[in-house]
Amino acid sequence: MTMRRLVTCCLAFFAVWFFLSEDSPYAKHRLHGGTYQSSAERVYAVAKDNFSWESISPTEELIWTDCYSDNQCARLKVPLDYAHPDGASAAIAMIRIHSAVPHDSPSYRGPILLNPGGPGGSGVDLAIGRGALISTVVGPEFDIIGFDPRGIGRSTPRVSFFASRAERAIWSGNFKKQSLNSSADALPHAYARGIVEGQLAGERDDGSLRFINTDHTARDMLRIVQAHGLEKIQYWGFSYGSVLGATFASMFPDNVGRLVIDGVVDSENYFATEWNNNLMDTDKVWMAFVDGCVAAGPNGCAFYAPTAAELSANLDKLYASLRVRPIPVRTNTSFGVVDYSTLRGTIFQALYRPYQLFPTLAGALADLTKGNATALFKMSETPAFECACDPSQYRFESVGEAGRAVLCNDGKRISPDYEDLLAHYQGLSNSSGWADVWEHIRLPCLAWPEFPKNHFQGPFVANTSFPLLLVGNTADPVTPLWAANKMSRGFNGSVVLTQDSAGHCSLSGPSICTQKYIRQYFLNGTLPEPGTICAVDAPPFLVSGSDAGVDGHAQAFLGVPAEDRELLEAVWKLAKTFDLRFPTGI
Questions:
Q1: Domain residues of the chain, as ranges?
Q2: 561-581 tens-digit pLDDT
Q3: Does the keyword DNA damage feature in the UniProt annotation (predicted)?
């Protein structure tokens, strides 16, 4: 192919992606079901260097190779099918943020494994982007280990339903995730696409797809622990990572050293593929925005109204306006249309990350009242598709269907009949006003291949070798505190630590109280007293008349002892940048 033709080809794919992109490997919303370079992965963006994962041969022993400046990487060889361990193998990609204390020091406490949720989230990306901050939280005595679960990111074999990146981009770009109450045909259309995705999964399966599930990933984690020469795990799992952690604790109760699950999912509901009790506290998070905005006053919140009722009415006017007349937007990097579904999805996104997005959302809503949708568009703007002249350049990129594979393989088979989907959606709508966003989760599973469902799916009951610590927020949009209390009852001696804040998982809100408890749990095994509630150190919105100062929240630093300032700074940075989606794709 001549250079001219090659450039023309690249530009053509670029244009298609630019015009159509939404749920791509680079799409922003993880409306709950896969990993791709979303706003989350833009936060965890990996600096390019000369390191290549292909340069590491998978081995059954941990062999660390220098990578990404001063970190170490490895690829651990594990059985693809643990029922036949001598058969085909998988390779689990891992990265280590080295402890600040030497490994031969009596202070060294070993590795802590991380899972950022999803399913489909990349632990490697999490460790590269936020590992140093998490190390500050838990203390210098630990290595931080990020790993990509099997089928995901840099771990192989990788899940892929598409023949090429371009095919995936075109399919994804041809469909912008619509609110399911945005039009009469929104649900039927989404249903039809879900059927196609399930069919593609079966048709393009190379034989490895059925082994991409939480059961096998839990077994992989035990192999990672044993490859370190240890028998008991230390683990911090967020969101879907709580399902993975609860599965590990139930399957291997004697191998629990320290295990934190944060933003806790009702694992029984997850494995039943019901997804109908996640939204219990979603409205509480929205009211945290409303009440916080009213309290902050016109100088602290751009979308201010004197009362909660007036503010809510103003939002309803925006919804109604966009239903009738979407707004075209052109920025210096892209272009698109802001409609009712855009507004619904962007608000739902903001509920996950109040400290990062509530002030931005308020400004965008204020602009929208004036007919300017640029700020709102930028909150969901996606990078343009880049075609690969060298396909190996993207061999290890995260793709959306990987998370959907875990979700559909894990869960109970669901009916492919449209009437049954409609009944589920109507039932969810009766319990939550956010069903139009949430129902998308189950759709790829409608025509999923009929693999055997003989993997572990509970019960989640265990007398673990060390008690679990469960962490939940009082107002979490997708993992209600109720679920943490329910799951705790199955694990003898476990304790629920409550953080009094809005947002998804504890790191969505800055609380040195919470993170000190987590640090002490890892360091010396101390559990908080049952019923312990931790406050956050400041609200997402500045209260009118307060001192702005550092990051606009100087009051949070006042009176903090010198020894806690590094921890508080790390907690604030995490609250303003940590983006977890459950599941990826919503």
A1: 1-47+99-281+392-423+436-586, 282-379
A2: 777 889 999 999 999 988 776
A3: no
How far apart, in Å, are the Cα atoms of 118 and each of 18, 255, 400, 503? 26, 24, 10, 16
Q: Are 16 and 169 in contact (CB under 8 A)?
A: yes
Q: Which of 345, 90, 82, 52 is nearest to 206 (CA)?
A: 90
Per-chain mean pLDDT for the chain:
88
Task: For residues 20 and 171, give the distance between their C-alpha atoms in angstroms, rounded to a whole number.
Answer: 9
Number of CB atoms found within 10 A of residue 46's CB: 15
Return the DSSP state at 289.
H
| CA atoms of 258 and 493, how far apart (whole Å) | 13
Closest CA to 395 of 12, 33, 55: 55
Global confidence as pTM: 0.89
Q: Per-residue DSSP letters for 63-119?
A: --EEETTTEEEEEEEEESSTTSTTS-EEEEEEEEE--SS-TTSTT--EEEEEE--TT
Q: Specify the fold of 1-47+99-281+392-423+436-586.
A: Rossmann fold (3.40.50)
CB 580 within 8 A of CB 505: yes
CA dist 162 and 149 (Å) reads 20
Alpha carbon 466 to chain centroid distance? 27
- Cα–Cα separations (whole angstroms), residue 213 to 155, 244, 360, 487, 576: 13, 10, 37, 20, 31
How far are the Cα atoms of 152, 184, 310, 313 from residue 316, in angstroms, in the given order? 39, 20, 10, 5
Q: Could you tell me how far CA 389 lies from the centroid of its own chain?
A: 30
Structural contact between residues 96 and 64, judged by C-beta atoms closer than 8 angstroms: yes
Distance of CA 277 to the CA centre of its chain: 18
User: Would you state the pLDDT for residue 396?
Assistant: 81
Q: How far is CA 269 from CA 69, 220, 277, 463, 487, in A?
A: 42, 24, 8, 22, 11
Question: DSSP letters of 13-55?
Answer: HHHHHHHH-SSSTT-S---BS---S-HHHHHTPPPP-S--GGG
Tell me the pLDDT tens digit for each residue of 116-146.
Answer: 999 999 999 999 999 999 999 999 999 999 9
**Whole-number Å distance between alpha carbons of 502 and 485:** 17
The tokens of 505 are what?
């998982």
3-state secondary structure of 535: strand
Q: Quick one: which H or E segment has residue 491?
A: none
Residue 475: name the closest of 245, 291, 201 by CA: 291
Upper half-sphere CA count for residue 372 (Cβ side, 13 Å): 8
DSSP state of 440: G
- The 3-state DSSP class for residue 144 equals strand
Nearby residues of 155 by Cβ (< 8 Å), 6 or more positions away:
75, 90, 91, 92, 93, 147, 148, 149
535 beta partners: 500
pLDDT tens digits along 21-43: 333 332 333 333 333 233 333 33
| 441-477 pLDDT, tens digit each | 999 999 999 999 999 999 999 999 999 999 999 999 9
- What would the two tokens of residue 78 be? 């594990």
Which stretches of the chain score pLDDT less than 50? 1-49, 544-550
